[in-house]
Amino acid sequence: MKIEVDRHLLLSQLSYISRAIPNKTPHPVLTGIKFVVTGEGLYLTGSDSDITINTFLPLEVEETQVINIEETGSIIIPGKYFIEIIKKLNGQTISISTFEGNYAMIKCGGSEYTLNGFDVNQYPNIELIKRDDAIQMEKQLLKTIIRQTVFSTANNENRPVLTGVNFRHDEDELICIATDSFRLSKKIVPLNKEHKPFNLVIPGRSLKDLSNILDDTADNVEIHLSSNHVLFQFGNISFQSRLLEGIYPETSEFVPTTVAIEIKADYQELYNAFDRASLIARDQFSNVVKLDIQPEKGKMLITANSPDVGKVEEAVNIDMLKGTELRIACSALFILDALKAINNPNSEVLIGFNGDMRPFILRDQNDETTIQLIVPVRME
Amino acid sequence: MKIEVDRHLLLSQLSYISRAIPNKTPHPVLTGIKFVVTGEGLYLTGSDSDITINTFLPLEVEETQVINIEETGSIIIPGKYFIEIIKKLNGQTISISTFEGNYAMIKCGGSEYTLNGFDVNQYPNIELIKRDDAIQMEKQLLKTIIRQTVFSTANNENRPVLTGVNFRHDEDELICIATDSFRLSKKIVPLNKEHKPFNLVIPGRSLKDLSNILDDTADNVEIHLSSNHVLFQFGNISFQSRLLEGIYPETSEFVPTTVAIEIKADYQELYNAFDRASLIARDQFSNVVKLDIQPEKGKMLITANSPDVGKVEEAVNIDMLKGTELRIACSALFILDALKAINNPNSEVLIGFNGDMRPFILRDQNDETTIQLIVPVRME
C-alpha cells in the first residue's frame, strides 16, 4: 500500500474513527486503525468490539483529487500515535506506505515516521449489516432522542439491560425509554406503520458516541436493524453497535397518566434555584432537597440543609394549575438533569405530582412528546 | 457585620483571594475567607500560611457606591462554598450579614443561604510587611521573569531551596535563576544601584500563583522585601509569600560564557520538529531524542526510537554559525519547555554547544537577557 492523501480530510475521518479506538483492550490489534486502499479510495475502520466505525474517503472530493494511489493494499496502524502524528504534521499532503509487511512509513516535509503496525489478517472480521428496510430519521431528531433519554440509563451493571435505551416500535410510534429505576426518561416520535414492529435495547455508551459524531446538518440517518446489531449510516460513515441482550422491563405502569397536583414555573428560574440549592445539598446523600409547594403564596420553596456547611432556601414563583400544598423530597441533581434534557430556557415547565411517595413528572409545557420522571425520596 | 455589596465587584475580589485558599489544610479556619468591614470598605484575606492574599474594596468605585454598610464587623466565611454561591446568584447586589456570632447569612432575590463560619479570632494573625525602600517593577516584566524561569524549579523536595527561584541583586542588575540540576533558566534585568544588595529564594508555587493574578495592564508592582517574606503590592491587592530558607547554590560556573559550536534555526520549525519527535520519545525514559548536527547539509536531524511504537526522524534547517558536526542526546520536553519560555515564533533561536557531555544553551537571537541551559544525557 502506498498513497498520498490530503492531511485535513484524513484528520476529519480520523476524528470519527477515534471514538471507537479503545484505550485499553485485551486485543492489542484493536488499538490500531484498519487502512484498506482500493481503486475507489481509502476505507478506515476502528472498533472496540462493541462499536465499530467505518469511513470512506473517495479519490475525489468536490472534483478535487484528494488521494493519489500508487499501490493498493492494507495495514493496521497504531491509532493513538497515528492520529497525534497527523495532527502535528505541517504539510497539506502526507504520504503513507507500508514496507516489510507490518511497518508503516509516514512522510511529510522534513518528517519521517516509521510505526510498528499489525498484519490486517489479525484484525477481527466485522461485518457491517445493512438491510433493505432501513428506517430513515432526521439527524437532529436522533440527536434529540439521545440527549433526552441517555442520561437516565443505569451506570452500574447490576441489570445490564438498564445500561441501554429501549427503542420500541408498534403501530405508528417509536417509543424510547431509559431508566435506572430512580428516574425515567421517555420520548415518543412518529414512525411509519410500514416498518415492522421491533423492541430492542441500544447500549447508552454507543448512543453517546454516536451523538458526538452526528453533526448539525439536516441530513437523514439510515438505521439498519438486525438481530444483534444496529447500524447507523450517514454520509460516508457507518456506525455499528451491538445490541444489549435481555428483555427490557415494562415501565408503562410507573408513568402516571394523570396528576393530582400540577404547577408551572419559568424554566430558567427553576434551573437556577435548583442549581444553587445543589451547592449545599451535594454533601448530603444523593443531593437531597425538599420542595414545599405553597399555593396561597404562589411559591415553591426549595430547601437543603448540611450540618457541616449550612442551609439554603430558594423561593421560586409558580402558577398553581391544579391541587393543593405538598411537601416532597428528591435529588436536586436528578431535577437538574431532567431540566437539561428539556433544555428550553424560554419556556415554562410543568411539574405533576401524585403525593409525596409517588413518582413525579416534568415536561416542557410546549412539548408533549417528552416526559422526565423522578422517584422522590422519603421525607425525614 | 451587615453589608450590601455589588456582586460582580465582590466576585472579582474573590477570584484573587481564591488562589490562596487551600483545598486541604490541617487548619480548617484557613479554608475560610476573612471578611473585615470598616468605615472605609471591605477587606478580604485568604491564606494557606505560605502565601497570603489581601484585597480591599472601597465604598465607591469610579464615583459609584458599591458597598452599603449597615454595620461594621468581621467573620470568617467558608471560602469554597461562598465563592460558588456568589457565582451562581443572579442579582446585582447581595446582602451579607452575621448573626449569633459565627453564622453568615447571604441574601439575593429569592435566595437565602446560611453558612457556618468561624470566629475571626481563630484566624492566624498574619502581618503584611511593607517597607519604605520597595522596588518598583513593571507588571509585565515581573510576569516575564516568572514565565521564563519558574518551570525550571525542582518539583521534588530533596533540596527544598531548588523549588524556588533565586533573585539576586548586586551592582545594577537583578539576576533570576531557577534550576532542578538537569536544566537552568537565567534572566537578567537592570535594577537601580540605589537598592541594597539582596539574595533570596521565592517559592516557585508562590510565583505561579502571583503570575496568575497579575493582569496585562502596564502598571507597576511594588516589591517589599523583609527577612522572611516578600510582599507584592499592586492596585488594591497585597500578595505576600514566605521565602525559602537555605543558601541557593552558586551556578555561574555551569553556565558557559563561550560555545564551541553554534547553530541558528527558525523558532517555529524547531518547536514543531521537537514537538513531533516527542510523540515517539515520550515512551522512553525522560523523552530522550538524539540531535545530529550536519554542517555540510545545513541540517539538524532529530531522531527518537521506541522499540514498541516505532521511530521518527525530523530534519530541521539550520545556519551553521560556528564549529563542526555534533551528536548529542537530551530530553525533548526540556527543549520544548525552553522554547516555550523563549516564546517568540517570529524569531530565530541560537543553540550553543561545548561537546556531547557539556550543558548546551538556547536563546532568542534578539534577547541577550535570557538563557535556557540543558544538561545532555549520555548517548547510548
Oligomer category: homodimer
Biggest sheet character of chain A = 9 strands, antiparallel
Number of helices of chain A: 6
Radius of gyration of chain A: 25 Å
Strand order of the largest sheet of chain A: 16-13-14-15-28-27-26-20-24
Structural class of chain A: alpha+beta
- Flag low-confidence runs of chain A: none
In terms of DSSP E residues, the strand content of chain A is 35-45%
Total beta strands of chain A: 28
Average predicted confidence as pLDDT of chain A: 95
| Largest interface pair | A-B, 32 and 32 residues
- The portion of residues assigned to helices of chain A is 10-25%
Distance between the termini of chain A: 69 Å
Name the shape of chain A in a single word. Answer: elongated
Q: Can you put this structure into words, describing what you see?
A:
Two copies of one chain form a homodimer. Chain A is α+β, with helices and mostly antiparallel strands. Helix content of chain A is 18%, strand content 43%. Chain A has helices spanning 7-17, 79-88, 139-149, 204-213, 267-281, 332-342, and strands spanning 2-6, 32-37, 41-47, 51-58, 60-61, 64-65, 67-71, 73-78, 93-99, 103-108, 111-116, 135-138, 164-170, 173-179, 183-190, 198-203, 220-225, 229-234, 237-242, 261-266, 288-294, 299-306, 310-317, 319-322, 326-331, 348-353, 360-364, 370-374. In chain A, the strands form five sheets. A nine-stranded antiparallel sheet of chain A has the order 16-13-14-15-28-27-26-20-24. An eight-stranded antiparallel sheet of chain A has the order 8-2-3-4-19-18-17-12. The mean pLDDT of chain A is 95. The A-B interface holds A 78, 81, 84-85, 88-90, 103-104, 110-116, 272-273, 275-276, 279-280, 308-317 and B 78, 81, 84-85, 88-90, 103-104, 110-116, 272-273, 275-276, 279-280, 308-317.
